[in-house]
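Why this split exists: single-chain examples teach little about how molecules sit against one another. For that reason, every record in the complexes split bundles all components of an assembly together and asks for one structure covering all of them. Below is a record exactly as it appears in the raw files.
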Amino acid sequence: MAGPIDLNEAAERELQARSSRSCRIKVCCSTACLSAGSGATRKAVEDALRARGRDRDCTVVPTGCMGPCSLGPLVRVEPREGPSELYRSVGEADAERIVAAHLDDGPAAGDLALDERLPFFTSQRRVVLANAGRIDPDRIEDYIAEGGYRALEHVLHRMSPSEVIDVVKASGLRGRGGAGFPTGSKWALLAAADSPQKFVIANGDEGDPGAYMDRTVMEDDPHRVLEGLAIAAYATGARQGYIYVRAEYPRAVERLERAIRAARRYRLLGRGILGADFTFPVEIRIGAGAFVCGEETALIASVEGRRGNPSLRPPYPTERGLFGQPSMINNVETLANLPTVILEGPESFRSVGTQTSPGTKVFALAGDLRTTGLIEVPMGITLRRIVEEIGGGVPEGRSFKAAQTGGPSGGCIPARHLDTPVDYESLRSLGSIMGSGGLIVMDDTARMPQVARFFMEFCREESCGKCVPCRVGTVQLYGLLDRICQGRGRPEDLELLSELCTVVRDTSLCGLGQSSPNPVTSTLRYFPQEYLDLVRTREVDRA
Amino acid sequence: MNGSRGRVRLATVWLGGCSGCHMSFLDLDELLFDLVPRVEVVYSPLADVKVYPEHVDIALVEGAVANEDNLRLARTLRDRTRTVVSFGDCAVTGNVTAMRNPLGDPQAILHAVYVEAVDRDPGVPDRVVPTLLPKVLPLHQVVSVDHFLPGCPPRAERIHQVLVALLDGRPLPDDRDIRFG
Amino acid sequence: MPDRRGVLELSLDGRRLNAREGQTVLQVAREHGVPIPTLCFLEGLSTWGSCRICMVEVGPQRVLRPACATPVVEDMEIRTESPRLRAHRRMILEMLFAEGNHVCAVCVANEHCELQSAAAQAGMDHVRLEYAAPQRTVDATHDRYVFDPNRCILCTRCVRVCDEVEGAHVWDIAGRGESAHLIADMNVSWGQAGSCTDCGKCVTVCPTGALFVRGTSTGEVRRAPDVVVRLTTARREHQWLPAGEGQ
């Protein structure tokens, strides 16, 4: 290709092509809907259009996640004129009916319609997921038409690296991987590192049970991650990027590979990006099935092709990281915030969320709720609104008992703290963490020692085995919890349980071990009676 | 706390162990004479007493809990004793007695020993000898234990040090020589 | 006036001391005769920081940091002893004893074992945790040495000395979590490990009875872990023994 891409022109071209069609039918092809059969739904929609000879006039767009995953397959019909309509649970047989309703003036498929004025939708605020469910993630043109790569263009042509860092600092953006470290400060550390070779790495190694925020971001809007990564590289002086994706996410890998190829073709990655003197190649590295590789020092080891063990800090990665060079790891959701931070400015970004936790957060809402799925909410929203408004509350006849945030590294939050605002500090003060965005709701049938045992089993499986407290402590904690759950526990076991939790938390080498007791300590804190009952009555395990 | 004529009622118990700890106890030699006026040995493999008595003040328990007899006796002695001391490595850790644990099911081990490895009259003994527990356990995993005296065997001086402290009603010294093996 | 560059002042168990920039808490403590227990740390090898028994309390918040891997900074406030540290160290030792099959009475390293003496110093008189009693097979395939994984605490001293001093890298860790274990070469028996030079450095630095000279009986092991410092120093300083004085 001759010159750099003209983003305005490309966007215009795409929008024109769209306006020549009378209708766009979007079929959610994210993993959840695909597993509910949206592949067949998509084909049925295409067949229905072809049967009417309308397949050129109406486009079927396979999109990413539309949100209420438990109601899939989801289909949105967007006529050129008139309001669009969202449909739920669209099976193969329903496709014809929906197409007929819109194209043949047939009877409305009102029984399948999903009202987008429901709190599930209106209580959300989609920034990171702005394009998810709306564009075809495999088409870079779709991303560009939505304003994609404008932020990169802006920083390359109109901002110095330090100005970019100042904007990110001013935005108050914090790491979305869990710890909540200020992103701008991290960037400044890497920018200050004096080295001819620096690296930025996007962390897509999400692995909490029940969580799929990062997967969705990568699968549904891969270019947003790439754009964020390129902005990070420009600001920090890194000249090589990696995206670390777990092998269990083959679709994310495929999408990202395709996105990288497309971006290179358009010179949005690689050499001379957007006509600027900025070169930034990006490569994908695939994990080998270890949760601990989400920890940044273990991730670095894994990218280097070594065993994924965490290592001691200091030195921090920004001092000595990948291949011994200054490096920085940002979570993919963090990176996906950057185009918005740049284009809309730090003040606008700060206008959402709270003072200390600005912006939005994506959660994978799961468990005993009427509606579960992937949601993005302004920080500071109360847990109650997430549970009752967005999730529609727990099903009839049951009552809310607790919510687990932060997966195996987090803790449970009981009903009496439902009005807690969801931000980094508030969750921590309750003995849980924000984490990467897993949110599991449990009704009154949940038994908390069993919940703790479940998460401890996960940590035991995922411990790398390097440090003693995590390697042995998680095994011992699991064994104790199992004994207690089976009604074979002794009262003194609870004391030992607490002491083990303290030692593992205080002395483990990395975050995995340090946070692994959280599910135990928080359930002990809020539901001590359940443990006491088990050790006193030696009740038989019902689970 | 004291039994007849002001003497402390002492028991020494032999569970799953080699009796080496008892041998070491006898190595107190002339120090034993000093103990005589202070203790009354009410139960011991060194004395011919069949039933573990009530109201025992101190029990030194040698050996791990390896079979059902051990388990029963451990529970009985706990019920009837004020101060229980895990006496030696087998009682404290399982030690040599517990070396069968990694091998798994005791029936398979008995079979290997009494059937596969013998030429004449193969057969697992099933009468008189008590049934083995699935796993050999240290004493404190079966009943609560008040003090621990590791060593294989604990040296006589250490036994003396601990016993005298207990007889005097003093706490066990912090700087006491703890060593396994 | 003496050169004060790179010198900093800190407090160690309430004592004000001088230390040099770049030193670790452990180095400073040892220089001043303050004992901090260690297991995976061995002078002359890279720092691995996995055993976690050298944890000390740092700062007014009393944050726990591994002494072996924590560089000293100006005005650092370090405590090497407290009820909490004692309890934590003891628990970590209990974890190690519960994890493997440590039977001191029949161990080649009895009375010459760093794990055993660390437990004694920590006042660990029994293990409250359940013993895992794992089934592990002894590797006696090497002509000179034996590896008994029942006694291995995964400190990786052998891995590091073989890689960093001998340059052979026979040993490494395979498996994760409770399945983590030491392997030779690409998971072959030690006798089959073609990269092994039979030098015995791993045997010399092993803190327990996991690696030992074939034919050693109970309590007969003798260690010389300082051989690492002697070797690395000699190499650096080109100090070679006169002929005939080598071992």
